[in-house]
TrEMBL record:
It comes from the Bacteria. This is DinB family protein. SUPFAM superfamilies: DinB/YfiT-like putative metalloenzymes. Residues 21-144 form the DinB-like domain. Pfam families: DinB_2.
Amino acid sequence: MKSKIPSREASLFCHSILSSLDRLVKCLDGLNENQLNWRPPAPNTNSLYALVVHTLAHTEESLLLTLFDQPSQRDREQEFQAKGQSADALIAQWQSLRERLQQTLLNLSADDLERKHLHPRRGYITGLDILLIVATHIAEHVGHAELTRDLALASTLQ
């Protein structure tokens, strides 16, 4: 029988995931179109805009679909090609997604975290594993985004 008590782990992950995504989206603040879409001059690098699009899509897929055994129509490769004229659409997307994530995460039970779910790229993993993967993935991209922002600002000032 499913426990009605929210999981302590889910509450802790909720804070970490949401605050990291807040930091990620904050990297877009004050940037113009050129800075949002600038890519470091090295192979396989991504623009700040693409990093945010990708990270939000991965989070949504993992926490709102995979965790509840729903199929995803996500196009991962297309995320890295994303470009934008401004950050407005991404900020609005994040505000909407943030509310849904918070509601979802704070309502996860210990049973939800112990149950196995079919992840699109990792096979069957527990709900707790999904939270750990998402938190780690976001943290990596926050670091990428903060560095990319610094480089984009330095590069476009010249």
